[in-house]
Amino acid sequence: VSAERGGYPHFMLKEIHEQPKAVRDTLRGRVSDDLNRVTLSEIGLDEEQIRNIDRIHIVACGTSWHAGLVGKVAIEQFARIPVDVEIASEYRYADPIATENTLIIAITQSGETADTLAAMREMKKRGLRVLAITNVVGSSAAREADSVIVTWAGPEIAVASTKAYTTQLAALYLLAVHFGQVRGQIDEATAHEMIEALDNLPQVVEAVLDTAPQIESFAQRYAHAHDTFFIGRGIDYAVSLEGALKLKEISYIHAEAYAAGELKHGTLALITDGVPVVAIAMQPDLYEKTVSNIVEVKARGAFVLALTWVGNEDLEKAVDEVIYLPKTLPALAPMAAVIPLQLLAYYAAVARGNDVDKPRNLAKSVTVE
Ligand code: G6P
Predict the structure, then answer these.
(1) What's the top EC group for this one (predicted)?
(2) Cβ proximity of 279 and 306 under 8 Å
(3) What is the pLDDT of residues 251-300, one digit of tens each?
(4) How far is the centre of ligand 1, averaged over its atoms, from the C-alpha of 206 (Å)?
(5) What is the residue with the minimal CA distance to atom 4 of ligand 1?
(6) Ligand 1, atom 11: nearest CA belongs to which residue?
């Protein structure tokens, strides 16, 4: 059994460590050798169709929905197409407002989640185009969608999703750059810089995995916590949500993610002496604002673990512990930031003696509504 797990004690840890390869496999063949273009012929949309898209609805559940939240920020920033990200079980009953040029993107690792399939079917019935991003080639989502972007994460066994999420991010980043290029929102030099950064993501992920011992030591000291808050701004907030979910799913520590600027509108009441706060500060443009939110929680006694880019030692003055992550384009930072959050959930769950790969009450794929 340990052989199946490649020598790792759990599938989850194995899958966390497979992420550099999974991301590399997902990018392979989709960026040109000169790093000037993204090729996604599988989406089956010509340039005119891409230019005509007036809105995108992303539908998904769980971790795939969280990937969609990152995708929204990237697509809106790079391609300037408005994106709504909807929970599939809500979307299907919401009588969504879509035009004939609305593109539906369904994100599903398994391709078998009943809620996501139902949302896809509803929109297909209305004659809309559905693009699936899935990890399973022959899945129901892959068969029923008009076109498919396959994430090449390989089989994901642990219930808590890790490598599926990062490969979904890779697919969404590719799509964002591709749409941005076709729609003339990104000039050639910027496109080159972005594609170079995308191509470098597997190395970024690899380097972040070196923080594992630091996270493990923190997790052992922290595993008795009852609550944890994750804060960030912009795309850092999107990845905070995934960090909180991961922690809840396997460590059973209550966690909430908050847009850092929203804390003062209520949540600060819950920050008392010793409450752990994980602060994600990967956006240089929003950095000062995030630091002022960190100061607010420190003033109430929080213990703050912060993630920031290598070289930003300034943060050490404001927090209790810093984890340095390689610098990438700010929009791509979730790819780096999610890794320590996955590791934190993993090591906290191990320290609490939980069944990491099969957490209570959760299924890998929920094929009933
Ligand atoms: C289940 C799993 C989650 C997963 C969600 C969506 O709830 O426990 O980890 O994110 O389904 O799964 P999908 O296969 O559609 O991405």
Answers:
(1) transferase
(2) yes
(3) 999 999 999 999 999 889 999 999 999 999 999 999 999 999 999 999 99
(4) 25
(5) 62
(6) 365
Residue 110 phi/psi, 5-degree rounding, is -75, -30
pLDDT value of position 230: 98
Which residue, chain included where needed, has tokens 């995108």?
Answer: 56
Beta strands 303-309; 276-281: pairing state: parallel
| CA 42 – CA 174 distance, rounded (Å) | 12
Tens digit of pLDDT for each residue in 34-76?
A: 999 999 999 999 999 999 999 999 999 999 999 999 999 999 9
CA 28 to centroid of ligand 1, rounded, Å: 25
Going by pLDDT thresholds of 50, 70 and 90, the confidence category of residue 162 is very high
Annotated active-site residue 248? The verdict is: no
Max intra-chain CA distance, the chain: 57
Percent of the chain residues topping a pLDDT of 70: 99
119 C-alpha to center of ligand 1: Å? 15
Alpha-carbon torsion (147, 107, 347, 235), positive or negative: positive
Comparing CA positions, the residue from 31, 81, 26, 24 lying closest to residue 58 is: 81
User: Residue 1: which pLDDT band, with cuts at 50, 70 and 90?
Assistant: low
Lookup result for tokens 């209305």 = 126
Question: Is the C-beta atom of 366 inside 6 A of ligand 1?
Answer: yes
Q: Residue 24's Cα: distance from chain center in Å?
A: 16
Pocket mutation for ligand 1, best pick of 65, 110, 242 (most atoms within 8 Å of C-beta): 110
| Burial class (CB within 10 angstroms; exposed 0-12, middle 13-18, buried 19+) of 12 | buried
- Tokens 């706060």 belong to residue: 277
How high does pLDDT run on average in the chain?
A: 96
Q: Which of 225, 242, 200 is nearest to 329 (CA)?
A: 200
How far, in Å, CA of 75 to CA of 178, rounded? 9
d(CA 260, ligand 1 centre) in Å: 26
